[in-house]
Fold these 2 entries.
Entry 1:
Amino acid sequence: MASFVKKKCADVASPKAKKRYTAGDVTFNIINYTVFIIITILCVYPFYYLFINTISSNQLSANGSINWFPQQIQWSNYTAVFQLSGLRDSFIISILRTVIGTVCTVFASAFLGFMFTQEKMWKRKFWYRFVIITMYFNAGLIPCFIINYNLGLTNNFWVYILPAVVQPFNIILVKTYIESTPKSLQEAAAIDGAGVLKIFAKVVLPISTPILATIAIFSAVGQWNSFQDTLIYVTDPHLYSLQYLLYNYINQANSLAMLIKSNPGLSGNSIANLASQQTPTSIRMTVSVIVIIPILLVYPFFQRYFVKGIMIGAVKG
Amino acid sequence: MQHHSASKGKAVKKNKWISYKMFLLILPFLILLFIFSYLPLYGWTYAFFDYTPPLKLSQCPYVGWKWFKFLFLNKTQVMEFLKVMRNTFAMSGLGILTSPLPMLFAIFLNEIHCRWLKKSVQTLTTLPNFISWVLVYSVAFSLFSSSGMVNTVGQSMGLISQPIHFLDSDNHTWLSMLLWGLWKGLGWGAIMYLASLAGIDQELYEAAKVDGAGRFGLIWHITIPGLLPTYFVLLMLSVAGFLSNGLDQYYVFHNSFNMEHIQVLDLYVYNLGLGNGNYALSTALSMMKSVVSVVLLVTVNAISKITRGESIV
């Protein structure tokens, strides 16, 4: 990426002096810039819209009158939604699964990726294929459900972690990466009498940090965003992930709004009683923003890695 | 002599032990993988039984190919299955039709020479890729529900008198699913092409400029041919994944109004199995889907080997 930018810089800087813009060039540039700016606004505005609505008066946002700028700014939504016990539980579950899941899969990918570079291992090629081939088939929803059910993993926190520990694609990434580093480092450690585990911990782990960071970020985002596993394996509300809870809120708010419309005397829903000024809209939007924030926080760090991540993946294909 | 061979034997033994030890170190992970990837294949047997959940499989009657026959011979079932396949083909087909868009996005973004703008566009258009489908749905709901932003602005400006039902209707379901997919994935899809663009030899451009090629000449004769290998690989992969639309997007957007056009194979398998409790039929479908997907993958891989001399998997 860096070299790409540099190249581009040189390209822009040098011919500037003698470059003459034709009318066609100008028209093209105007259209091109406009289209990209519109696309960018379309990608960003929805997030902005959610945010300004959560910090504006809930009444105004329920009427749909907050579209461009926040009005009557207040931050009480963010403290209010955390009083929902369901939200607090889900927040903790989502953080736990993100942290534990990421640590486990990064460790497993690093270790397996490294071990599969060790030619001494018994039937190394066979076991490598045994792992990789699982990328290309999938038993299906019900067979997986039955296995997890029989293992007691339904309504169990570990259903978020265990099936995702061994990720063949990540193992390919690490293996390719380690193979691209000089072998002499490992050999030198081996001559000094280091065993496989010591070589892994002292030599391989430190030099693999770029690829491990890529894997960590991708799996953290994957864990944070995961929705399906809660949908399929979990019915216990204490184990709901934040994504699943948000989905429920959207649908509850939906049915709640319809119920209120058809039956004005009705207010028996837990969401309606939360706090007098909260509306289904304010809760839904505030939870949405809370779900986005962690992604936005890691995003700047992320960017450095994702081109690298895809490129290595693309080489392998 | 004897002593020498004995020590050699010991060394061989020691090496053998090391090679087994290494295997033992990864064994726990292999077991984990076996449990979650291979063991479920055994669950395919459920397709051959009349399985009722609380019972054990051995207590249920073996029915052979009944469910497969049911899928293809029962009239209402066939109609429903055809509808599901129509939706699957529509969504995957539209996905393949629009597959050049990320490439075009990258090519035209590359024509922006203002660096900070280019970087900002790239960063901001990639963002939607990293949010979940639930959040996309939340965004869609905020903007397009009957009390959402588009309807309230439209009504206050007098453009529409009645709220338009974007989400709770079956109008243009395929188109809106396609557009949400593009909204989420277009910027991200372009990154791969931007990376390959950087790999195109700059001298080719210089040479073509000397030959008098204009901006579009350069794009047509150098950039596009340079990106085609990447495009080809991605196209082949999307053909291999033709039957896998994914569950998340269609699940979060589905409702009783748009079921007719939104139920793709993955959603149907879910609805049949966990919604209606028809484990056997759902498993039978998964089974066929897996087999067809593997066949597709092997086929596109063979095509790739023949046409490019390189395999994609």
Entry 2:
Amino acid sequence: MPDTPFKSAVVADGLVKQFGRFAALRGVSGEFEAGKLHVILGDNGAGKTTLLRIIAGLSQPTRGHILVMGTSEVKVAQAQIGYMAHPSMLYDDMNGMENLSYFAGLYGIDPARCRDVIASVHLDPDLERRIGQYSQGMRQRMSLARALLHDPSLLLLDEPFSNVDAHSASEMAGLLARLRDQGKTLFVVTHQPALIESSADEFVWMAMGRIVNRTATLRAGTP
Amino acid sequence: MSFLATTRATLEKDVRLEWRSKDAINGMLFFSLLVGVIFSYAFEPTAEESRQIAGGLVWVAVLFAAVVALNQTWARELRNQVLDAYRVSPAPGNPLFLAKAVGNFMFVSVLEALMTLLFIVFYKLRPLGPGWQLLPIALLGTWALVVNGTFFAAVSLRTRSREIMLPVLLFPLSIPALIGMVKGTTAILTGADSARFYIALLVAYDVVFTTACLLLFDTVLEAE
């Protein structure tokens, strides 16, 4: 069961996002069911990251409306959102615990939870090494740990498997499937959809700033 | 988390990062040391001339050196898009701004303490007026520079040439504070005038600009 009282985690209505003369989104509309794993696919420049950033409240649409977790109030919705961007969103000169303890403070969370979250992504909470000295795979997992820190209902993950070795990617995919099974809503932007094909509920195909197809299976949407 | 707790946590984090990287401190120290030595050889002033010009030299050197630290303030938040992690949290923007301003105040104050020693040695300075008044002028003047500097460094964050934009925005606005700092310091060093007016000017400047920066910072933080 989804851990939200809403049927739709995200409702987008005619979202347009302009950067100067370039339109990154050209009228994105749709309802995205809560408690499901939505995989967003498309070529570079299709508007996937822009859509995630608008859902996260990090970017405002030029036109159109969006409801996230039943509200249009960005700060209210953000308390329920975990966002993982392509970069790590972590300080390179601090270790994992120091990073997560700082962010735990921003959410008013007991820092003791950091240990559990770090362990949940198969990293060692006692590792003294700074983030800047982590491998890309470790950095991605710590970044996921930061996004999971406040136990959000809605997870927005931008390229979580990029530059990650096959074993780590498979472990992360398993973790995402478990989170979906716990009732969380996930939006995963990826160029490696096969990794989460079995656990995904929907594949959202984007091109040129529009949603061009929504399919229940990966094969159904493949040209 | 309360306003003060978020401010303290962010300040502690910034001090820790600066202690480890020393990005701002090293840049400021090198720059100000260079300025101090060059000025002393360029002017070779007598003791009386030193008292007349030292106020201006010290504060101009601090202003230029502070820009180095102010540019670093937000650079580390842009690396790895960490600023977005703050923006997506429920924490308001003001504690972030205040922590950055206080952090810069600490770093620039360390620099000033060292520069004061340097100038005393190079210019053989001894104040003829009430020397204790240099302390409020230094504290208020430094806050005036860093509060606006921190704010405008954030404003210029998303501009293409932000390291140029910061002085372009900051220096004109700092003129009233700079006049207060320079004239006040000169008045104390020469003993010719009272510095009380300049201290009052700096208090008023600090109150007005701190309030304005705190009120406007959320808008700056959310701007794209």
